[in-house]
Amino acid sequence: MLTAEKNWYPEGVKRCSLSQFLVWLGCISLFVLFGLLAALVILFNGIGVTGLDNYYGFGLWITFDLAVIALGAGAFFTGLLRYIIKIDDLKNIINLSVIKGFCCYSGAMLILTLDIGQPLRAWFGYWHPNVHSMLTEVIFCITCYLTVLIIEYIPLIFEQKQLNKIPFLHHMAHNLHLVMPLFAGLGAFLSTFHQGSLGGMYGVMFARPFAFREGFFIWPWTFFLFVLSAIASGPCMTVLICGFMEKITGRKFTTYRIKSLMAKIGGAMLVIYLLFKLLDTWFWATDTLPRMGFTFDQMYHGLAYGKWLIFSELGLCGVLPAILLMVPAFRMKPSLMYTGCILNALGVVINRYVFTVQTLAIPVLPFDKWTVYYPNWAEWLTSLMIVAYAFIVFSLSYRYLPIFPQEVPLNRGK
Amino acid sequence: MSAVKEFTIRWGMVIDIDKCTGCGACMVACQTENNIAPQPEASNKLRSLNWMLIYELNNKKSYPDHDMAYLPRPCQQCGNPPCVSVCPVIATDKNEEGGIVSQIYPRCIGCRYCVAACPYHVRYFGWFDPVFPEGMTKVLTPHTSVRPRGVVEKCTFCHHRWNYAKEKAIFDGKNPKDLPEDAYIPACVEGCPSGAMTFGDLNNPKHKVYELSRSKNAFRLLEKLHTQTQVYYMSRREWVRKQGDNYLANDKVIGGANHAHG
């Protein structure tokens, strides 16, 4: 049985023993199990078991969704660069990007299903769509884009050594690869719009001063800022996953040059994003807020919702990683490049957190009070379940699928 | 931001804060009329269902200058509702004569985007299954639906009472679109013992609310956000009117009849 399992590995690679792999999967599956139990409790008793309340209709789940979708943007953006703009070097990391995108989007959809109060009515978004709601666009784009990601993932699975021996699957994988530029383009279109509509969702809330933004026709600035921040952080997240996988497996998957290229792309996007984000923040603080009867200071409160959030987001996790990723001397040092990537990814998480939670925390009624939101076990366990699910998909893909074209030459002699 | 829709009839409320004693009768009337189940943990105000809620206001001064007021808060029935355009499934709409923001419970998917969009906190999510104590089901209002958990619910100005009034007018051979002053009033207004609440058609000069909403002491909550609410408040006290909106130190306009009748 053990010998047969080895026949499923990609050609010429080395993998740990099956028992070691099963222990690894078993540990991760514990998180999935706890998450599933929490999900059952939620579905059985309703989302009253979570930490959400009348003030915080949106909490950890939406933050998690927005963050993983932004970080999953590496898939569509890398696909765009690889297949449309023809940066050929990215073929060495595109497969990882696709798997990451698939995990992020499918995970977000699972969480969304838990998050709505009536999961059995989830399909109403297609049946009774409100064309004015940005959330409708999110619902349509996210499902269409997940379909594209599945189509992009399928040829990878069919290229598995044993499956590829089946002529039908072999030809199908080959033909799907041929039409991949079409799906890369479609994916880039869908994903751009839905990253934007996620941002637009908040920017159009004209009675919520923290989120509301002026805009361009029907699109608030948050629409464009969410797209930019996603394509800034997505490639960096791919680099981080690649680096993390190399660390725990002790093998090299791509050259440092490729990772550095991805980090540079992320850094360049971050610079463009920061330019617009800083302009947007300045206009919001000096024009939008006073018109709504608020000051910048009123938007921040205590430790939980203090100004440290904006300074962390734009300074520590904005300007600093932009420098680390754009200056070649810094980017050439692995520790600084990875630090830049981590900060970049963290910045987008803070951004999504404040837009979802801080927006609701601020008392808009003058006689209302600040309340603080704490996610509870039900939200944490289900969110961790999605992370564990992604770990399982990555582990299985790494072990059995030929996702890294450079793995064999880079590890020769190991 | 969508345009304000025009309606021939625009149901609205004027609440005189100087008359309100904060007794809570409007809250109780609302709970009873609209079949809101008693909460299993009523002390948890962050999970309660209160379509009508009373806020306590004070002028933030110490004795002897301390002053306070009570502000009842139903759904403000915005002319330009922040909740309607965001709903992905058109479970909520403002598309009917009368200008009342509706909520279709069987269509709501419980995404709570409307809860996030509403600055007045008038939209309530059903966190738990409604459980009515034994015997209470006999006194539920038959024309008000009982909502399952997992949907968003809200005040509709006791819309079912308007339906009664229209049917009665048709039966009596009168015009259902020109109802007299007291033919249709929500339960909270009926239950108010101090006469602080007045209800009627804001577009009809024969209704009291028409004049009251135009008085110099009238104001609307968060007028700067351009939600164009159909609930007006009144107070002779300037600090109360100021607290109705977020007035900055350099703001000159303080309530009064300077608002547009949207």
List keywords for this structure.
heterodimer, A: 414 residues, mainly alpha, two-stranded antiparallel ribbon, 16 helices, 2 strands, globular, B: four-stranded mixed sheet
> In sequence order, what are the helices and strands of chain B, one letter per element?
EHEEEEHEEHHEHEEH
**Rg of chain B, alpha carbons:** 18 Å
Strand content of chain A: under 5%
N to C succession of SSEs of chain A: HHHHHHHHHEEHHHHHHH
The gross shape of chain B turns out to be globular
Number of strands of chain A: 2
Distance between the termini of chain B: 14 Å
Give the averaged pLDDT of chain B, no decimals: 91
Overall pLDDT of chain A, averaged? 93
Q: What gross morphology of chain A would you assign?
A: globular
Strand order of the largest sheet of chain B: 8-1-10-9
Q: Between the first and last Cα atoms of chain A, what is the distance in angstroms?
A: 25 Å
The helix count of chain A comes to 16
Largest sheet of chain B: 4 strands, mixed
Q: Which structural class do you get from the secondary structure elements of chain A?
A: mainly alpha
Give your account of this protein's structure.
The complex is a heterodimer of chains A (414) and B (262). Chain A is mainly alpha-helical and 414 residues long. Chain A contains 16 helices and two strands. In chain A, α3 runs antiparallel to α14, α4 crosses α9 and α4 packs across α10. Chain A is globular, with a radius of gyration of 22 Å. The mean pLDDT of chain A is 93. The longest helix of chain B has 13 residues. Chain B is 16% helix and 14% strand. Chain B has 262 residues and is of the alpha+beta class. Chain B has six helices and ten strands, in the order βαββββαββααβαββα. The chains are: A mainly alpha (414), B alpha+beta (262). The interface between A and B is large, with 48 and 55 residues.
